[in-house]
Amino acid sequence: MLELALYSQVLIFLAVLGCFLASGQASVFHPATSYLGFHGLVFVLRPLQVHFLDYDSIWNYIGFRPDDSDMILALAVSSLALIVFVASSIYFGWTNTWFSTKPAASLSPLQYRALVWTTMILLPYIVASIATTQGGAEAAGERADNGVFIQTHSTGWLNDAQHMLAPMLCIWLVVTRFHWLNFPPILLYVAYRSWTGWSRWTIIMFFVMVTFSYCWQQRRRWPPLWSILLAIPILMLFSVLGHNRDVLRNYFTGGQNEEVVKELRQGMTPEEKEKLRYDTQNFANFDYLTFVVRLIPKRSGEFTYGLQYVQLFTEPVPRILWKGKPNGSPVHLFDVNSYGNFLGLTFSLPGDGWMSGGWIGVVITLGIVGWIQGSGHRYFFNKVNEPFAALFYISGLAMVTLWFRDGGISIFKFLLWTWLPFFIWRSVIWVLGGRRLPGNSIIIRPGERLRMVQGRFKTGPESFAHQQSTDI
């Protein structure tokens, strides 16, 4: 039965992919494209590896051994999530997907001046964030009973501000039309993220953001070949950092990378070495989902009913100002870590929906997310010739894979730092543009007369106002 379910999973994926391509809405800018890529990797390819190659490192890490019925249920949940999300995003995002002009428009002088001011405003904050995390304040803290890491010497409002650097670099890439002089700061950024090791997702998301921006500027519906080739070393770097976050730091400081690898591989067969290399947490959302559907609600006794999203209202408050701030969600119906070691793992969007209310929770969660992202897709093509609006959507689209992977509220923290430069940029445009506000419109009925009055004023002792009127 499990093998039949695995083959059915492949057929369902291909059927949904075919329907999406036949819809005429398919492009790199559609959120369904990102979800299909995510689903194919973690809910189609990974289950085949788990079953046929006996990948079990995640089971050993969590401390449970699923049976076939658990994995079949996880496959069914993921397939339902795929169908609901793709259908919802296509329905709510239906629009004309062809570019009307070529090439993309440049920034207006006002937008360019505002961008310069925005860069000068944010750069000191970003530098302070990098300096703080390099000083070790980010790692200073303690782990709560439910696995939430609590920072005691700093705050996320400062530590995570450096994530604004990626969208800022991407905006300047577009403004300068991908000039080669952008290469040194980009290389420096990737080197820094590799040196720190943590938040390796920023490297992938920056690459995706740059690729989307290039496609928009060049009026391409699909990525060029060079981006696909460049993705190979980027993914290799992502994998290496997953095995050892300090690999680059140790390489330049004389660390023990090679000794650790040799010790791990000593006495292993070639098959075991391959398993050690690929059976990792990088793309193991199927394994996590299997644990979630087995646990909830059979052992937990209940669902969360979406109450985990209450954390949206408590998370923004710094713990420095709120000493009694709850660890994670303020509403705890059950703790998954009481049933297994789930530290550092993610529920995924299908798992978050299942946790909220089973099959109905999956339909509601994926339907709402599909509606949100589909509406964004329609907004993008309606504003496709406006650089600010287009880049705003593109930067958010580059983050959606994290939403698919994590579920819950973490995406809102990622989007905060991704979109904050755009909010500040828009505010500076408003200030430099004379702080103009929308006015009211007047409807003129047929046959009515409109008198236009123009005033001319002079200064001095003979000042007066002279009016000219015209009837229309």
Short characterization:
The protein contains 19 helices and 4 strands. The protein is mainly alpha-helical and 472 residues long.
Describe the structure.
This protein is mainly α and 472 residues long. It has one domain (2-432). The protein is built from 19 helices and four strands. The protein has a two-stranded antiparallel ribbon. The longest helix has 35 residues, at 348-382. The chain is globular and about 85 Å long. The chain starts with a helix and ends with a strand. Mean pLDDT is 85; it is low at 136-140 and 457-472.
Spatial ordering of strands, largest sheet: 1-2
> What is the total domain count?
1
Strand content: under 5%
SSE class? mainly alpha
Helicity, as a percent range: 55-70%
From the N-terminal CA to the C-terminal CA, the straight-line distance is 80 Å
Total DSSP helices: 19
Q: Whole-number average pLDDT?
A: 85
Radius of gyration using CA atoms only: 26 Å
Extended strand count: 4
CA-based shape: globular
Largest sheet, in brief, is:
2 strands, antiparallel
What series of H and E elements makes up the topology? HHHHHEEHHHHHHHHHHHHHHEE
Low-confidence stretches: 136-140, 457-472
